[in-house]
Amino acid sequence: MPVDWKDYGARGLHDEMVTASGKPRPGAVKLARYLAALDAQELAARQAATELALKEAGITFTVYSEEGGSIDRAWPLDIVPRVMARSEWDRIEAGLKQRVRALNLFIDDLYHDQRIVKDRVFPADLLADSRNFRPQCVGVGPPLGVWAHVCGSDLVRDRDGTVYVLEDNLRVPSGVSYMLENRAVMKRVFPELFENHSILPVDDYPSQLFDTLAAVSPRPVGFPEVVVLTPGIYNSAYFEHAYLAQQMGCELVEGRDLVVGEDDRVYMRTIEGLARVDVIYRRIDDLFLDPEAFRADSTLGVPGLLRAWKAGHVALVNAPGAGVADDKVVYAFVPAMIRYYLGEEAILPNVPTYLCIDDAQRAHVLANLETMVVKPANESGGYGMLVGPASTKKEREEFARTIQADPRNFIGQPALTLSTVPTVVGDHFEPRHVDMRPFILSSDETLVTTGGLTRVALRKGSLVVNSSQGGGSKDTWIVDEEGR
Amino acid sequence: MLSRVAENLYWLGRYVERAENTARMVNVNANLLLDLPKGTTPEWQPLVAITGADGLYRERHGPGYDERTALRFLIAETTNPGSMLSSLSLARENARTIRDFIPREAWEQINEMYLHAKDNLASGLSKRGRYPYLKRVILGAQTLTGMLAGTMTNDAGYDFLRIGRNLERADMTIRLLDVRSASLLPDDPHALRPFENILWMSVLKSLTAYQMYRRKMQARVRRQDVLSFLFKDTDFPRAFLHCLSVVEHGLWRLPRNDVPLRATSRVQRTVQGAEVAAMSQAELHAFIDQLEIAIGHLSDEISRTYFLAQPLNQSQSQTETGVETA
Q: Fewest beta carbons less than 10 Å away: which of A40, B103, B173, B236?
């Protein structure tokens, strides 16, 4: 089944592997040739081997339902990698570092002098309405001035080839374990591809994460006690929590394993007694973190944790309150932040964003609902949004009323046509839309994963990449230009 | 080692053992009933009583103990926290959170045991399917024990697992003796004499102790000999004192073990000093009561020393900006 990439179906789309004329893009020449030569049987065999490898390694994601309890589903991985040339990636990496630096300065500013508000770059009423601003954190100075130590930014490429930042996840971004596992599985199934390409490695992440965490330890000890704090097995990202703890050689703890002493220090309960904890990589939302400071009904958190953090006796990663910048309205101001704090222009553009709180911009959104995506400011997981091109007239009318009732909570963006990557469908390839989530680590230095997690919408024409809604994933290759 | 992990391992050991013991009892009882004349024994009620769920049973099903209802209650009912299926489900939940601490195959084995038991309930509750169904649970638990012995690092976690398993086993052995010997007290001693032998044999068989008893005691099956064998034998794995010595051995290897070790020795001394063979029915019952309280106390001491103060198994939902993000 030799493939002619020209006719594989990506016409009118931006494909990551081949151009409109079917010519492989830089970095993907050998891969395109290799895939084109695979016959149907071999293709099916490789996809089956991949699925088996994932199953054997127990790589799952959890879907929780009321009736069925928690169900582990096999993680879907498509065998065709998403390839990006190193030269392009280098620019993106620089853009991400710049962005996260500005975001950390912004968060630190908001909890201290609020210069950016006083200088009227960021509107005061937006801050007043922010759902993720934590008054409890005002005046706190976390080590190195870093609030968002782990950031997952979602990138998309539009039809014209421009790469945009779609959003920044600064609370508890997940997915990095799948990036690592996808690579491990691909190496097992396609060893020959890795021999013939200069694919940059991704496996450093756990040790980089550990170093990032250890660097913010309040105690100057050689081996700070770093723990991963999980909400527990029913969380959809539990696999990742366990995975990262294991890879870093840390304890995986739940809230009830920890206790804050009279001395405002954090301890974990072990069979030997209490043991001091220095750094907590918490995968629990702010509001569940400490029933004394936030939601009193939280059973996931640790009473007094915020007190210990404010006293500087424990580091929390990410810092509480960092989510203030993880807001789709705040997002619209990131290019302005970069200018304000760094005196630079943003290397990576935002998707053009219309704030519904602004009368003129809201009018634009309401007049163009059919071609826009409208999102609530603080939801994640794709909830409560309107995808204009896929909506009915009635849905749009209802949504218009919702927007008018609470304009601060909505933004509108033109619906993009995400780029595609060849994806196995039965015994052949078809283009499917993808996005990409790199992870950025910040403490004493800023590090970016090599590439990131590529998510793919497995349904034809779909733009929904969420794993619970028929999304899959791909290995992401940053390739040193061929010939080098 | 985290207290929570230790606690999960301990309960994993207990729940798997509980499931196995329930399967054993039901199996032997079902066999036994075939040999007894109709109407001479209380049949299924004693089994429900052994598991300590008599009150719950009456509340749900009233005073009748027909085979169907009692079997379903003991094996399948999820509202009965002591049913075999509940025990397997709890074992699985405990194992799930500590998958990194037990060998992968062990987790798979636990998972498989639970799923098989759940998926084949209908045949397990039928007269013909019952024996292979229960046997599979017993074998499954034994396989798990073997796997863990053969592949799990003998660290503190393994000690907690063995301590849990053996406390549960010790507890079950004396419960079985309590209820069985009580139900063996016939109103008319002559009416049941021909069957007394096989009733005691059923006690031994439900613990797979029959062969070992014969070899060790070289006597026919008699009340006093069975009692002293199942209480005091130090070598048979399901005998009370043997179980306690495994607990003791495990505790020796753990930190901060003074209080739980003292509680263990107290229980051991009580049994060593008791003339169980000579006890009347009432004395035996009182003695077992006292032992059960002591075991509960020992379990509390272990819990107080090593585990979390709050109960396990709470959950709360929250969203994570996850792979689920649009």
A: A40
Backbone angles phi, psi at A417, to 5 degrees: -100, 100
Buried b (16+ CB within 10 A) or exposed e, A293-326: bbbeebbbbbbbbbbbbbeebbbbbbbbbbbbbb
Alpha-carbon distances, residue A239 vs A195, A206, A290, B3 (angstroms): 30, 15, 23, 21
pLDDT of residue B116: 92
Number of helices and strands in chain B (H, E): 15, 0
Q: Among the residues of B36-155, which ranges form H helices? A: 45-50, 54-61, 67-71, 84-96, 104-119, 121-124, 130-151
Joined tokens for residue A97 = 């570092």
Residues in chain B within 8 Å Cβ distance of A251: 2
pLDDT at A29 over 60: yes
Total CB pairs under 8 A between chain A and B: 125
Q: Is A173 on the interface with B (CB under 8 A)?
A: yes
Cα angle A179, A181, A182 (rounded to 5 degrees) comes to: 65
Q: Are A423 and A47 in contact (CB under 8 A)?
A: no
Looking at residue B38, what is its pLDDT?
A: 65
Contact between chains at B314 and A299 (C-beta distance less than 8 A): yes
CB A290 within 8 A of CB A308: no
Distance between CA atoms of residues B21 and B31, nearest Å: 16
Which pLDDT does position B39 carry in this prediction?
Answer: 61
Which of B157, B203, B141, B176 minimizes the C-alpha distance to B17?
B141
- A55 versus A40: the higher-pLDDT residue is A40
For β-strands A258-260 and A428-437, DSSP reports them as: unpaired
Closest chain B residue by Cα to residue A268: B2
B115 touches chain A (CB under 8 A): no
Residue of B nearest to A282 (CA): B320
Does the pLDDT at position A82 exceed 60?
Answer: yes
Query: For B207-257, where are the alpha helices, taking DSSP H only?
Result: 210-217, 223-232, 240-252
Mean pLDDT of chain A: 90
β-sheet bridge partners, residue A421: A432
C-alpha to C-alpha distance for B156 and B308, rounded to whole angstroms:
16
pLDDT of residue B191: 53
Provide the pLDDT for residue B255. Answer: 96
Cβ of A167 within 8 Å of Cβ of B156? The answer is no
CA distance A181 to A476: 11
Q: In what order do the strands lie in the sheet with A258-260?
A: A258-260, A266-270, A273-276
ipTM: 0.79
pLDDT at residue B28, as a whole number: 80
Percent of chain A with pLDDT over 90: 66
| Phi, psi at A18, each rounded to 5° | -130, 155
Alpha helices, DSSP H, located in A38-81? 40-56
With cut-offs at 50, 70 and 90, classify the pLDDT of residue A58: confident
Q: Which of A173, A233, A237 sits opposite B97 (nearest CB)?
A: A233
The whole-number average pLDDT for the span A40-56 is 87
Kindly report the nearest CA distance between residue B310 and chain A, in angstroms. 8
| pLDDT tens column, A390-413 | 889 999 999 999 999 988 889 999
Residue A317 and residue A279 in contact, taking contact as beta carbons nearer than 8 Å: yes
Q: Do B324 and A466 touch (CB under 8 A)?
A: yes
Asked if A439 is an interface residue toward chain B (Cβ–Cβ < 8 A), one would say no
Q: Is the pLDDT of residue A383 over 50?
A: yes
Dihedral sign of CA atoms B265, B269, B270, B276 in order:
positive
For residue B1, the chain A residues in CB contact (below 8 A) are 270-272
The encoded tokens of residue A73 equal 């589903």
Residues of chain B with Cβ-Cβ distance to A61 below 8 Å are 323
Cα separation of the two ends of chain A: 31
